[in-house]
Amino acid sequence: MSKIYNNIADLIGRTPLLRLSNYEKKNNLKAEIVTKLEYLILPEVLKTEL
């Protein structure tokens, strides 16, 4: 049986995530804004994505 995930963040690989809490506060947002930092992608992976 496949694993069932409770949170979409659990489906993301090892790419680091950064919470933009300062942006949220500055813009008076009630949502949580998270960005994916893909600066660690290997050149081989970039070739396959192009």
Layout: helices, strands, pairs:
Elements: E1 17-19, H1 21-26, E2 34-36, H2 43-49
Antiparallel strand pairs: 1-2
Describe this structure in words.
The model has no long low-confidence stretch (mean pLDDT 77). This protein is of the alpha+beta class and 50 residues long. It is flat and about 45 Å long. 26% of the residues lie in helices and 12% in strands. The chain has a two-stranded antiparallel ribbon. It is built from two helices and two strands, in the order E-H-E-H.
In short:
Helix content is 26%, strand content 12%. It has two helices and two strands; from the N terminus they run βαβα.
Topology, number of strands: 2
- Spans where pLDDT lies below 50 across 5 or more residues: none
Give the SSE string.
EHEH
Which oligomeric state applies?
Answer: single chain
User: Largest sheet, described in full?
Assistant: 2 strands, antiparallel
State the secondary-structure class.
alpha+beta
Structural domain tally: 1
Query: How many helices in DSSP terms?
Result: 2
Highlighted features:
50 residues; alpha+beta; two-stranded antiparallel ribbon; 2 strands; flat
